[in-house]
């Protein structure tokens, strides 16, 4: 009996060109005939199987390097590890079908499947983050569920023979997988917090939406101090309406209506400057273009708000028809800027919430 020879680290990583070609061909065979692939790999030496899986892992990592900068690679690694949670399902199927070396067959299937079939999901995730187009998030969502069902079904179907055994093996795989899924879900709920939630490590996670949710763009300076500015503007408009909006009515505005503006401005201006500083700090921190655009629109709204305050200064000082028209133009421009920001945010939330309601996004 020949004594087993110890394999050095150098020998382990020194795969020949023919071996590399065979590994690549085996990827295609795993896709087209997974049962044949698993049976053959189970029979080969353990060191060869380990070298094969390391090769697939390195190839997988190389393919995902462009996505590493946006955190996709970490999600891919975590998803591959989470996939091993269902190993018990495949192990029981292997025992039922009397597959030689059931534990090895299970690990070979789990790891090879994730290395091969998770790559398209990572690419879709990367496209979603780079383009910030929720079409890719939608496709990613459907592909994720399709991959999960394939993960649970391929192993029992590929390794079983005969209709009765195939149905029994598939039922066993699905039943145990559902039990594991429900158990893991309940366990995750027990550890769920607002800081670190299970969704954050899912391929369905939406970091763009999470960043938008964290933005502070409540431009309440127009309503600072219980809406004093709005009440002052309404008072001016009501006085002018009472005078049939004539230019002569401007000169008849009570002096205290113009004097009030001085104290009101003192209340509002600090809130406006605080908002401007907050937007500046957030622009330096956000990553995604969606957030940057919303902050740009918010900054434009702040600028129009400042223009409106300057126009109110002029009107309060003179009360002339010219300054009143300038005030109305500034008010219209501010409301238009506010509407543009809100419409942009609403359209974004419509798309995102629709995908979340369909379970395609976390």
Low-confidence stretches: none
Number of strands: 0
Order of helices and strands: HHHHHHHHHHHHHHH
Largest sheet: none
Structural classification: mainly alpha
How many distinct domains? 2
Q: Write down the overall mean pLDDT.
A: 80
Helix content: over 70%
Structural account:
The chain is mainly alpha-helical. It has 2 domains: 10-194, no CATH class; 213-357, Four Helix Bundle (Hemerythrin (Met), subunit A) (Up-down Bundle). 78% of the residues lie in helices and 0% in strands. It is built from 15 helices and no strands. The chain has helices at residues 9-13, 17-32, 34-43, 46-64, 72-83, 87-97, 102-131, 134-159, 163-190, 207-213, 224-242, 247-251, 255-283, 289-318, 321-357. The longest helix is centred in the last third of the chain and has 37 residues, at 321-357. It is elongated and about 95 Å long. The protein starts with 8 loop residues before the first helix and ends in a 5-residue tail after the last helix.
Topology:
Blueprint (H helix, E strand, L loop, with lengths): L8 H5 L3 H16 L1 H10 L2 H19 L7 H12 L3 H11 L4 H30 L2 H26 L3 H28 L16 H7 L10 H19 L4 H5 L3 H29 L5 H30 L2 H37 L5
Helix pairs in contact: 2-3, 3-7, 3-8, 4-7, 5-7, 6-7, 6-8, 6-9, 7-8, 8-9, 11-13, 13-14, 14-15
């Amino acid at each position: 009996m020949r004594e087993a020879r110890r394999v050095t680290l150098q020998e382990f990583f020194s795969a020949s060109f023919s071996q590399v070609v065979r590994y690549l061909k085996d990827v295609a065979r795993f896709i087209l005939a997974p049962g044949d692939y698993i049976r053959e790999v189970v029979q080969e030496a353990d060191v060869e199987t380990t070298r094969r899986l390391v090769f697939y892992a390195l190839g997988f990592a190389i393919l995902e390097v462009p996505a590493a900068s946006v955190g996709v690679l970490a999600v891919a690694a975590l998803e591959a590890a989470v996939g091993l949670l269902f190993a018990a399902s495949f192990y029981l199927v292997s025992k039922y079908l009397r597959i030689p070396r059931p534990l090895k067959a299970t690990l070979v299937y789990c790891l090879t499947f994730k290395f091969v079939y998770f790559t398209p999901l990572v690419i879709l995730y990367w496209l979603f983050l780079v383009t910030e187009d929720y079409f890719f998030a939608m496709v990613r969502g459907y592909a994720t569920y399709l991959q999960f069902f394939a993960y649970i079904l391929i192993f029992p179907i590929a390794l079983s023979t005969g209709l009765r055994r195939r149905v029994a093996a598939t039922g066993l795989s699905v039943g145990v997988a559902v039990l594991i899924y429900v158990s893991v879900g309940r366990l995750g709920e027990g550890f769920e917090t607002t800081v670190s939630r299970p969704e954050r490590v899912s391929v369905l996670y939406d970091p763009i939406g999470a960043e938008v949710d964290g933005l502070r763009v409540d431009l309440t300076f127009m309503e600072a101090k219980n809406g004093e500015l709005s009440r002052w503007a309404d008072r001016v408009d009501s006085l002018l309406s009472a005078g049939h909006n004539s230019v002569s009515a401007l000169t008849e505005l009570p002096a205290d209506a113009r004097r009030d503006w001085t104290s009101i401005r003192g209340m509002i201006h600090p809130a406006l400057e605080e908002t401007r500083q907050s937007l500046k700090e957030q622009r330096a921190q956000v990553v995604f273009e969606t957030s940057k655009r919303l902050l740009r629109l918010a900054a434009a709204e702040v600028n129009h708000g400042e223009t409106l305050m300057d126009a109110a200064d002029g009107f309060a000082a003179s009360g002339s028809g010219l300054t009143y028209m300038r005030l109305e133009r500034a008010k219209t421009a501010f409301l238009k800027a506010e509407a543009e920001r809100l419409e942009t945010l609403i359209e974004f939330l419509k798309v995102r919430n629709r995908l979340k309601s369909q379970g395609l996004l976390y």
